[in-house]
Each structure stands twice: as C-alpha cells, then as structure tokens.
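Researcher: Go.
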Amino acid sequence: MSGQRIIGLTGSIGMGKSTVAAMFARAGVPVFDADAEVRAMQGLGGELNAAIEAVFPGSTGPDGVDREALGKIVFADPEKLAALEAIVHPAVGERRARFLAKHASAPLILFDIPLLFERGGHAAVDVIVVVSAPADVQRERVLARPGMSAEKFEHILALQIPDAEKRERADYIIGTGTSLSVTQEQVERLIETLLSDR
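Model: Structure:
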C-alpha cells in the first residue's frame, strides 16, 4: 500500500490521549489536535467568539469564550450543545482541510479527536488507535484535575462510548496504565508498523 495514512487517535477522558499525541508529534508525525484548534478559535480574538456570543449571550469576555460559563449553558442541554456544535464543527473542518493540504507529503498524519466514534469521525480515517488505561487509573487522573467532581466525571463518561467498546473497534490500542517509557515504546513500534505497511 502507498500514499498517506491518516491515524484517528481517540480515547475516553483521562486515558492519556494528549500524552500519546505528543509522542507521535515528537516522532515527526504531524498532529491535528481538534480541541486545541477549538480553544484557539474561542480564545483572545478568536474567530468564533462573535457567533458564540450571539447565540449564547454572556458566554464571552475580554479573553474570548468563558469556557466554564459556556459549559454551564450547554452541559446538560442537548439542543444548546447541538447549536454550539453547528458553529464549531464546520470551522474545525476548514482548519483540518488546510492542515491536510499543508502536510500532503507526510506519510502519516494523526487526528487527535476525543469523540472520534461519537461524532462519526472514524469514517474519515484509515487507522483507529485507542488510548486506554485501567478504570481506576482513569478515575484517579480525572478527579485530580482542577474543577472536576465525581458527578461531572460520571456525566462526561455517560456522553462517551465506553472504553471497552472503543477497544473492540480499534485497529491498535496504546496502553497508558504503565510507565511513560513503555507507552513511548508502544508508540514507536506502531509508527514503524504503519510505515512498513504502506
């Protein structure tokens, strides 16, 4: 097989997906981080701020979108969440297209997409890699985050496809329940495998 391969990297909250994405990036694989793009478009001078403020008055401030305030508005309201996604997703799609054009000659591209299965993004990638850790490790990591509560964690989990199902649907699984060096070795082996399979 020849040509570029697009890796879809996903994993439930607290599984270590950002850490693994950074390992791919350090190994020279261009990484498109959907969450980082959204933060940039909602930050100071962000291109989506006016549209978000128009639909959700009071959700932006001098530094851009107040993510906590916006979260409270859309957190438990599917209709409002859908309205927000209708603003955000097309803009992310445009940035992704520009990213692909910029890296057209790279043998591997990685899309870091938290809700890869939940939003149907798995159909647009060639290889699915799921980052996973034991449930107790995941819980400990998430509850250590600022502003996180057990209730909020459970709500986020309820919105995500269970880890076991993601693992079943994965082409490859990167385990993060061990040391960083072991995770790094898994990433390096996977990159070698994907390059040799082209």
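Model: Strands lie at 5-10, 31-33, 60-61, 64-65, 108-112, 127-132, 172-175.
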